[in-house]
Specification:
8 strands; two-stranded antiparallel sheet; 4-stranded antiparallel β-sheet; 4 helices; alpha+beta; PDGF/VEGF_dom; Cystine Knot Cytokines, subunit B
Length: 168
Amino acid sequence: MRNRLSKSSLLKLLIIVPLTLDNIVLSMANPDGHHHHRRTARKIHLPRAIDASRKFVCREPQTRAYNLRDLMQNVQQNPGESAIQPVYIILKRCDGHSGCCMSPDKSCSPVDTSIYYEEMEIEIWSLETNGTRRQWIKVEQHGKCACEVNTSDDRNLLDYQQPNVTLI
């Protein structure tokens, strides 16, 4: 019986000591005591990169999230009112990140005839009434994308262009 206890204690000791040493080594490597996991860089060879860009073709608008308060800054509202819900609105957009074009002189842009508007109900908070009310807005959506000749300035403008929003 005593021999079994000795073997059990020895086994526990053999498990605890390496774990303790491992923790000591890790804490010495990171003085703040936090574990930092670094991801190793993954290499993507040229043929695979070209294939990926060919598969991500500029055609379908991509989903983008916009902060409603930011979008409403350019909309005429009553003084002391602020849009509060939804916090973000999700729109379909064509921009320089919506798909790939096979020419460096082209970028993904909305097809003019595919631009449409959707009506969306939002909630507005009023300082004057100290309450909320609902309001309908019209937001610009893109229905189809295509590659168009653009300059670098055009691409930057398109990437940062806010969707049109109007009160109904």
